[in-house]
Amino acid sequence: MGKILLEVKNLSVTLGGTPVLSELSFSVEEGEILTILGPNGSGKTVLLKALLGLLPFTGEVNWHKKPRIGYLPQGLNQMSVRDMPLTVEDFFALKKLKRDQVLRYLPLVGLESGVLNKRAGYLSGGEFQRMLVAWVLASRPEVLFLDEPTTAIDVVGGETIYSLLKNIWREQNLTMFVVTHDLNIVYAHSTHVLCLSRFAHTCYGIPKEVLTPEVLNDMYATDVKFYTHPGTLSQ
């Protein structure tokens, strides 16, 4: 961990007259993996967009420096581009990247050069998500914003993507903001967690310290069965 990168003070967001986030305060150090956890409708994606300056808010969002940011929004998958005649190489060309540049990023996500000639819409779910990670990395970010990066992938494929992201985080000294609802991911791949809830309960801290059964029950407004799996807490 390092210096404070981001300070958020009393952040509130109202959309269509409905409060979504209220008086939220936290800070993020350089090199953290902050997972934003909460049930559907708790404002996870709204928070990411507010931090990126894509939504109006009140309060303060103070970046201590202006990092290069890579953003992978929610909902991108191979089915969303299936009707488009785009090869993987075409997809990277949207960022005005040449073939030799792209070839530097594919190995980082476990893809071979032959994937460039495939139709992006006909990749497997795992291949498409790996391609998207490479696509985001191509902008050489210092900070990654990832909104549900394993949507529509099975559990095993999702774990592979998160393990891949954590390796990249280590190798490239990134700071990462990850939206998820998967507790296993929080424990295995986060340095810190921020909890959001439609019922106004929030927590922030190291996962194994703040994610108590009581906190989870409050956050999800239900009786959450809590299990600790050996080996999931190591960073």
Summary of the model, kept short:
The protein is α/β, with parallel strands linked by helices.
Describe the structure.
The protein has 235 residues and is of the alpha/beta class. The chain is built from eight helices and nine strands. It has helices spanning 44-51, 88-93, 99-105, 125-137, 155-172, 183-189, 207-210, 213-220; strands spanning 4-15, 18-29, 33-37, 58-63, 69-72, 143-147, 175-180, 192-195, 203-205. A six-stranded mixed beta sheet has the order 5-6-7-3-8-9, with helices on both faces. The longest helix is centred in the last third of the chain and has 18 residues, at 155-172. The radius of gyration is 18 Å and the shape is globular. The chain starts with a strand and ends in a 15-residue tail after the last helix. The relative contact order is 0.17. Residues 229-235 have low confidence and may be disordered.
